[in-house]
Write a structure and sequence with these properties.
By secondary structure, the chain is of the alpha+beta class. The chain is 25% helix and 24% strand. The strands form six sheets. It has a seven-stranded mixed beta sheet, with helices on both faces. Strands 9-17-16-15-10 form a five-stranded mixed beta sheet, with helices on both faces. The longest helix is centred in the C-terminal third of the chain and has 21 residues.
Length: 709
């Protein structure tokens, strides 16, 4: 067996794993340098208004406090492309939690004490943080996140729905959700004259450097940004956040190295969140189960700082064959923090609603939920008419059903029990688009027989270092241990950010091309590799971002078994199975980890994760992990992830699709559908907490619930 046959796809261990578990890996807030100061933001205590005064004297009187920056004395910034970064530039307060001051001190403790001592006065204005489907200020945006048109319509969906033999008209609610990475957002900055050096927790240092250069009006080549290790991001670190701007401002103001590490309580206000979404699904079908119409309407909120529209209706445009369809978004500007990316934006809440409605249709028709999805499999992408580069959802559903033992399921709701517990099973499909961005990479053969590969990729815990080394070794035809890889610095060849499940596809393409060119140079070399080595470079611009003639998506199927306690309302997930079609899997070990991680996050979305905006004070009431509950190991019992092999020649040289996000997409719906099967009650609002489930069991109908307040 050749090296090429064993390197790519093998379950190689993460190269940085030992450093992480032993504490050798260094993160953005960790620095060995002396003379470092720490800074702490002072969050606005009102939901809307203007700062009329900042009394910094009590803070400056404390031992160790060096400076207090406000909109009156902070360094001036050029107007940013992202207005979320225009911090300490004016007295306006667009939402509670907006930074109104920054305390710089000798220690983290002194900075925290100083921030608490700053006194701020405000002129307040009336505020509104409550989303409703019929909000009088809602409007249809030009587009949703990702550049998707806000509204798409084919055929005559209203007439087709009215004429359908079977109709489902249901509303679903997903609350605000929050990114809570293990490593909160942090940045360390230092100025040496006009040269800026930054260590930051980011999913892409290239964009951080570009943004800082624009804000501080210095050349990009005068800025170096590193993100050697990043303790998770889930989308919240996909763009620069206020921490990196505040750190650079404080460093310039004081002449010191300054670290800004956001406390977890500040994250909901400063780093984005998944916006709440209100869904209305109308499905029309014949008695044979074939869809005749599909209508998915979504209402969501954005901030007054900038527009961000969760594209939750977009997945319905690619999932099922329906000759008549309409997918539409409405949004309302509220006095809330700006929403942003959170793992599988759009797909996660959108597919929860769509797959729940499909389950309702299956129950209404008396058709098996797996079979219903098979009957509505499209030949081409319904929205664009493009052929799929590959689509093996049918195989995922069938293989998942086989592994799960679906054929033995009694379809009758409330038919399964285990002692006093109600037992149910559910299924849902999943999809996520294939995204690829241009990147550059360099590869060098060394005289000792080793190889150095450099690319400014960011490893946010996904195993990017390891997988990219496998791509390089496979392309060069050498053992994996002969390849050394460097990532996470703007001093390396520029690359796209780690987001949209696009990292490996984007960086791997550039690494493959650089290594292929290097292999050609080595093949033509008449003698040994010279002392300085031999290098090659690749840039995928014009190819990775070229328009494709194919609709490119990953697909999957989720199966869940749950128990519901009729006495307490507690729901437990006994089994969770995901089967995916995601192109060629490049590392079996890290791929399974990504799938399971996404499924676990989907379990949290279904059962525990919940947030509310307080209408009186205008802030999120769940602002830490004591009140915002993420799943613990005890909540995740049997979780399995498998995949079907795909050979797709229309993606990238590796034939890979993104896998970081599809694991979350169908999980919540599968669990919700299983809870309906167990209880006979359809709950249409997440999460399925004991109080909500128990109320439904006691009244034998799903509680209406409230939302946004």
């Amino acid at each position: 067996m050749t090296v090429t046959e064993t390197v790519l796809g093998a379950g190689a261990e993460r190269r940085e794993g030992r450093d992480k578990v032993t504490g050798a890996a260094r993160y953005a807030a960790e620095s060995d340098g002396s003379g470092r100061a720490h800074a702490r933001p002072v969050p606005a205590a009102v939901a809307r208004g203007r700062v009329t005064g900042v009394d910094a004297a009590p803070a400056l009187a404390l031992p160790g406090v060096l400076a207090v920056l406000t909109h009156e004395n902070a360094p001036r910034l050029a107007e940013p492309d992202d207005p979320v970064l225009a911090v300490l530039q004016g007295p306006g307060v667009p939402h509670r939690g907006w930074p109104v001051a920054l305390v710089v001190a000798e220690s983290l403790e002194a900075a925290r004490q100083g921030a608490a001592a700053v006194r701020v006065t405000y002129d307040t204005e009336p505020h509104d943080v409550t989303l409703t489907a019929a909000h009088p200020d809602s409007y249809v945006p030009e587009e949703a996140n990702g550049g998707h048109p806000a509204v798409r319509e084919r055929g005559e969906p209203a007439a087709a729905f009215a004429a359908a033999e079977v109709r489902i008209d249901a509303e679903y609610r997903v609350p605000p959700l929050h990114n809570h990475p293990m490593e909160p957002h942090a940045s360390t900055a230092r100025w040496d004259g006009d040269r800026l050096t930054v260590r930051t927790s980011s999913q892409g240092t290239t964009v951080v450097r570009t943004t800082l250069a624009q804000l501080f009006e210095v050349p990009e080549e005068g800025i170096s940004v590193t993100a050697e290790h990043v303790g998770g991001g889930f989308g919240s670190k996909g763009t620069p956040r206020p921490d990196v701007v505040l750190a650079a401002m404080a460093a310039r103001h004081t002449g010191r190295t300054v670290t800004v590490a956001l406390s977890r309580r500040l994250l909901p206000a400063l780093v984005g969140h998944r916006a709440p979404t209100l869904h209305r699904l109308r499905l029309g079908a014949g008695r044979d189960g074939r869809l005749t119409s599909l209508d998915h309407e979504v209402a969501t909120h954005t901030s007054r700082v900038k527009e961000f529209v969760e594209q939750a209706a977009v997945p319905a445009r690619v999932m099922y064959a329906a000759p008549h369809s309409r997918t539409a978004h409405r949004v309302v500007r509220l006095d809330v923090p700006t929403p942003s990316w959170m793992r599988a934006p759009g797909e996660a809440p959108g597919m929860y609603a769509l797959e729940s409605a499909m389950d309702e249709l299956a129950v209404e028709l008396g058709v098996d939920p797996v079979e219903l999805r098979l009957r509505n499999e499209p030949e081409t992408e319904p929205d664009s008419g493009k052929p799929f580069s590959s689509r093996h959802l049918v195989e995922c559903l069938r293989e998942g059903a086989r592994r799960f033992g679906w054929a033995a399921r009694d379809p009758r709701p409330r038919s399964g029990t285990d002692g006093p517990l109600l037992v149910g099973t559910g299924v849902a499909a999943a999809t996520y688009p294939v995204l690829v961005s241009p990147s550059t990479a360099a590869a060098r053969a060394l005289p000792d027989g080793g190889f150095l590969v450099q690319v400014n990729a960011t490893d946010i815990g996904t195993g990017a270092r390891t997988v990219l080394a496998q791509v390089a070794a496979d392309t060069l035809g050498v053992p994996l241990d002969r390849v050394r890889i460097e990532v996470g610095s703007t001093d390396l060849p520029a690359a796209s950010l780690a987001g949209g499940s696009s990292g490996t596809a984007s960086w791997g393409w550039a690494v493959h091309d650089a290594c292929a060119r290097l292999a050609d140079r080595l093949a033509a070399l008449p003698g040994p590799v010279p002392a300085e080595g031999i290098g090659a470079h690749a840039d995928t611009t014009g190819r990775a971002d070229a328009e494709s003639a194919y609709s490119r998506h990953a697909f999957g199927a989720h199966f869940a078994e749950v128990t519901a306690d009729p006495v307490t309302g507690e729901v437990r997930v006994r089994r969770l199975l995901g089967v995916y079609a995601a192109g060629r899997v490049l590392n079996a070990r890290t791929a399974r980890s990504q799938f399971v991680g996404g499924m676990t996050m989907g379990l949290g979305m279904a059962l525990t994760e919940d947030s509310h905006l307080d209408p009186a004070f205008g802030d999120f009431t769940e602002s830490d992990l004591a009140s915002y509950h993420v799943p613990a190991h005890a909540d995740v019992a049997g979780v399995e992830a498998h995949w079907v092999d795909e050979d797709d020649a229309h993606l990238n040289p590796m034939g890979s699709k993104g896998i970081g996000e599809i694991g979350i997409v169908g999980t919540a719906a599968a669990i919700g559908n299983a809870v309906h099967h167990a209880t006979g009650i359809r709950f249409r609002e997440l999460p399925l907490t004991p109080d909500r489930v128990l109320t439904g069991l006691l009244t034998h109908e799903a509680p209406a619930g409230t939302f946004g307040g």
